[in-house]
Amino acid sequence: MKAVLKFISLMFVVTVLAGLLVACNSDEGASGDGGLSVGIVLPTRDEPRWVQDEQRFKDALEDSEYTTEILFSQGSSANEKENVDTLISKGIDVLIIAPHDGAAAGSAVEAAKSEGITVISYDRLITETDAVDYYVTFDSIAVGAAQGQYLIDNSEGSNVPLYLYAGASSDNNAFLFFEGAWSVLQPKIADGTFVIANSSEAEALQDKGDLSRDEMSRILSQVTTNWDPNEAINKAQTHLTAVGGDMKGDVAVLAPNDGTARAIADVFASDNEVSSYVVTGQDAEMASIQYIIDGKQSMTVFKDVRTLVEDAMGMAITILDGGTPETTGTYDNGSVEVKAKQTDVIVVEQSNVKSELIDSGYYDADEFSGLE
């Protein structure tokens, strides 16, 4: 009798184990080849831009046979490395990564590359490594140039106080944005249209059209916001406190993105000695579109993330299907020339909010008030 019970118990264990194996095999089959197809690492959930990207990435693969997982690094290179390692362990074939810190991300993508994974740098370029296969981006220099040109086109007279702000020094895009803006602003600084109000380093270089990386670094060290609205508020308050009335009145403000633009705009609007301000932005965040409608932010550079996501996922699917992705240029990342696909950008101001963002289906009209 004991032998029979022992046999029944053994058969029960075998049956349970078999069921578990079937379940595991079923899950793996759902992902195509026993693992994830595409791993995506985004820098933070704390900016609306990246949360929007998350959903659009999910939508892009909704009807595909391929699978994906999206992880956020929350502004930490250590988390970013851990995220990449996690995705490698799950068997990804393609890694799409928007790095928190372009240089620090090198070790993470080198680990992926050593496993035969194709690496696509998304929106921000990973630098100082040959482990990057492709780069999907907006033309970042064109973004900065559009911001600078807007300030030129919407400022009147001469000796207009110009306040310069930039993104994080750890982000290669911050340099590209600033390079583009400086390329159009510098001649107008040199001829007296603008007077730099908040950077002694920029003032010292105001007669130089082409800046080296080191020269831009010195400027950015004084005017970086680190993409943080709170830091932007603190810097703007410090700068306005430090200057005299001759650096107020009607002013021009180069703000690097929408989050910092709204923060800086609020500070300038609260200063009684600032008569008016023209302030730039980028990303077409919903809150900034409302600011533009309300006249509190002047413009934003619209980077249609739908197109960027489509380009990145299209590239990934081409790779998974065994093809070679289409590219439109290259970027020097300090180690290699990375093949890139670029997406155009659009300047949005009060007059074309409806045509560019509502009529195109990017936003719904009922998400805003005061829209004509």
Automatic annotation (TrEMBL):
Record keywords: Signal included?
yes
Task: Give the GO cellular component terms, alphabetically.
Answer: outer membrane-bounded periplasmic space
Pfam families in the cross-refs:
Peripla_BP_4
What is this protein's record name?
Putative sugar uptake ABC transporter periplasmic solute-binding protein
Annotated Periplasmic binding protein domain ranges read: 38-323
Cite the InterPro entries for this sequence.
Answer: Bact_Solute-Bind_Prot2 (IPR050555), Peripla_BP_I (IPR028082), SBP_2_dom (IPR025997)
The protein's superkingdom reads Bacteria
Indicate the principal place this protein occupies in or around the cell: other
Kindly list the residue ranges recorded as spanning the membrane.
none
**Which Gene3D superfamilies does its entry note?**
3.40.50.2300
Q: Which organism is it from?
A: Evansella cellulosilytica (strain ATCC 21833 / DSM 2522 / FERM P-1141 / JCM 9156 / N-4)
What Gene Ontology molecular function terms does this protein carry? Answer: carbohydrate binding
Q: Which PANTHER family match?
A: D-XYLOSE-BINDING PERIPLASMIC PROTEIN (PTHR30036)
Question: What's in the keyword line of the UniProt record?
Answer: Signal
Does this entry carry the keyword Signal? yes
Q: Which residues form the signal peptide?
A: 1-18
Cell compartments where the protein resides: Cell envelope
